[in-house]
Amino acid sequence: MLGSYLTDAYSGDIRRRREVSEHLAHDVRQGVHAQKVMQSYQSWLGEGPELSVLRMLGLFDRPAEEKAFEALLKSPAIPDLTESLTDLSPTEWRTILAKLRRARLLAGEDPHNPGHLDTHPLVREYFGEQLRSQQTEAWKECNKRLFNYYRTLAPQLPDNFREIEPLFLAVICGCNAGLFREALNEVYMPRIQRGDAHFAANVLGAIGPLLSVLVHFFEDGRWGSLAETAVEEQILPAKDQLFILMQAGLYLTATRGMAAPEARICYERAEPLCHSMNHPQLLYVALMGQYRYTLMADKLSAAMQIAERAYSLAQEQNETNSLAVALHFAAFLARYERNPAEVERLASDLIELSTVQNFAFWLACGEISRGWARSASGDPDQGIASIDDGIREYRATGSILIMPSWLALKAEALHLANRTSEALAAIAEAEAVAQRTEERESLAELHRLRGVFLANMGGDEVQIETSFCEAIRIAKKQKSVSLTTRAGASYAEYCRQKASGLGGHGFRLPLC
């Protein structure tokens, strides 16, 4: 950790960075622990204005601009922090900075960024943590002043990332100051996300920065555990808590994948709030978030239970689109359980609903699922025809994202119809689509199916082994328990038949 800090690049030119870094690195090379180095500097400086400057530099993760520091140093003074720094003359201020620069605790002034104060991350971390943990009220007051500074620095409705960045900083400082309601309702919702427009996410694509902001609404960065405050005026009401949890769940899933445990925690914490507020639409979203995680990282039976709850909720609310989504995912799970009768039932209901409501997308999904069910039930020719019709309708909607999954179902049907060479061609097409769209959800299953097809047609052993091993590797990387188990079972059965000598007479590996 220490070495990474010392080699971290931070803002400012290389010469200025070396002035600070080499001095600290020299002590570290001599075997002196970084904390002891900081302690020795602190003892040498004493409790004077220089130490207060270093502690305030710990409020920033970048060079501190002069105007931000002016906001911290304005009257009235912050008790136990800025009394010796308020109302200084320019000469007195420069003298303090010069002393810190001579000690190599402050970088030389950058001619390209005049007025900015910069130091090494070790210095920021050590003295900033002192301010946060030992001078809590001063820490909060500093963040309150920075919150008000940054919120006025940006345009009311910024148009690009450079303009909106001060608002991100404002929310972070507001949360650090305990101003949760103001940070959320006066900056994050109306100015960063612009209500239902989700401007920063949908227009600017700033999902990562949004997460770096949202995490400050949670206790010590623990997703799902919303921060608490003793100030009644700043306690977030249930609707705001629900909003934050749903935002966090959405963007955690987008950045860390469907198997992100942090997203699952947020959606689980959101569920009781949905019930208490009688908000069935958001409850459905929370259930689907839990479903996605469970599908990837837990047992299929657990995922089916959540899917059934979402299906029942959609029926109760008579929300047709949600009902179509629930039917689709329930059929998806039933396919994994190799239950063609249940898939047929659910797909038929989805087709009927989609026909009445004119849902072209879900109609195509229903046709493909029903085709798979009929193929698995012993009628592969009719099944293949239905799958082809569904894929054609799906493409007509302009959709492509889950096309590899549909082609995998077609490959299964072709294999059951003793058209394995065509099934392998469908797998190859699916992989090409996945490569083009960067969709990775179906990759493990595509490799597993290739291994099964090659084994059953007496293919090359190296290719078979490679396919199964790649399926297991990808499933583990995606943290998908169900796909890992499935690929592992197919590989184990292949190894068993190979060891027993059955391979010489042709393998008989099942599709599941």
Quickly list its features.
512 residues, mainly alpha, 71% helix
Give the ordered list of helices and strands: HHHHHHHHHHHHHHHHHHHHHHHHH
What share of residues is helical?
A: over 70%
Low-pLDDT residue intervals, each spanning 5 or more residues: 1-21, 27-31
What is the number of helices? 25
Number of β-strand runs: 0
* Strand content range: under 5%
Name the structural class. mainly alpha
Shape: elongated
End-to-end gap: 46 Å
Largest sheet: none
**What integer is the average pLDDT?**
88
Mind telling me the C-alpha Rg?
30 Å
Describe the structure.
This protein has 512 residues and is mainly α. It has a domain at 1-134. 71% of the residues lie in helices and 0% in strands. It has 25 helices and no strands. Helix 14 (261-276) runs antiparallel to helix 15 (280-297) and helix 15 (280-297) runs antiparallel to helix 16. The radius of gyration is 30 Å and the shape is elongated. It starts with a helix and ends in a 12-residue tail after the last helix. 42% of the residues are buried. Residues 1-21 and 27-31 have low confidence and may be disordered.
